[in-house]
Amino acid sequence: MANQEFSYAQDTLRQMAQDILDYARLRGADACETDVSEGFGQSVTVRRGEVETIEYNRDKGVGVTVYVGKQRGHASTSDFNPDALRAAVDAALSIARFTAPDDCAGLPEADWLARETPDLDLYHPWDLPVEQAIELARRCEDAAFAVSPLVRNSEGASVSTQQSHFVSANSLGFMGGYASSRYYLSCSVIAGEGDGMQRDDWYVTRRDAAELAQPEAVGEYAARRALSRLEARRIPTCDVPVLFEAPLAAALLGNFVYAASGGSLYRKASFLMDSLGKQIFSPLVRLSERPHIAKGLASAPFDDDGVATADREVVEDGVLAGYFLSTYTARKLGLRSTGNAGGCHNLLLAPGGHDLEGLIRQMDRGLLVTELLGHGVNYVTGDYSRGAAGYWVENGAIQYPVQEITIASNLRDMFRGIVAVGNDVLVRGSKHTGSILVERMTVAGA
Q1: For FRET with 258, which of 48, 49, 50, 175 sits at 20 to 30 Å CA-CA?
Q2: Whose CA is closest to 235, among 446, 23, 6?
Q3: For 356, which DSSP code?
């Protein structure tokens, strides 16, 4: 990229935020909160050795929320000119005066707010010229093709870089902000030919580019995954144990987070309503939120409301100890914010003693799932049904790949039926987990 630096200093963003708060108060707002942000990045994709896409982005924006009594208005702009900032405040005030009052609207309680912003080591600048990004992507894809002549096609290898910084502030005296970075390397390839073709992919993401896997390792692993799926078959319908590979185990935790989030709960659209203090998982499950992990992909000293984040236990010995609440949803439920406006912050599932191979041996006979299709989850009832692909396991070893199947159960039964968690922990986002073995599910096949 031509310019790998921010256009605005952090102090400039802070001054803009303060100017917005001052103007909102002058115009009659009872309370105000604002976010000022700037970011830039590039993404390069190479397919079959040729550059397919090069994308640059440089964005900035301001969001303004004002409260007039219990009436709320919000406006945004991408123009940092002082006149545009004042216009955004005026627009938010105009909207607020036409909205219905909401008793739960408003800023967080003052004692909930973060009073300091510890350095969580989230920003690691990477000056990556586009020529080098192209070379990294080519190395990744070339390594995939080199594994076997059966790797016949590619959906591309990509390298993405994103760097941003922001300031959040409100009229209770809170002001905080920091810079962050995130880098991504991926490869997706196709093996086989005709009706027997199979695709698979792999990707890695980190705050610090120095911690990314080598591109050759990513490409080779994507290729081996695709090759291992050749000659996949269907299996008869059966009720068997199901082992979710770590990337899909993270998605299973995502189902839990959604059901245990304030928005689902106060709308009475979750099967986990009124579940605090109740056994919802197997006793071996312990889930902890750790928002302050250095370089963590979901680390944050405060949430989107400015509420301070803190270490906490979400599930202890299978018992639900806490929901995921923002300021608004906490008030709707008559509870205290958990600092989760914007999502969870590094949710860690305590690992067990086995890696993936050990879990396969423990399962003995059943299904290892490595891909899920569709979105068949009913959060009101907990019913779960997803298209799937993976591997059939007999005598504690993988026998052959399977496809065109559906796995089904209810999330209540799945959570309580977790019989093992792997130590093959994969970190790609806000959920840190190894593979998860569920005691029994229905596998619908041939």
Answers
A1: 175
A2: 446
A3: H
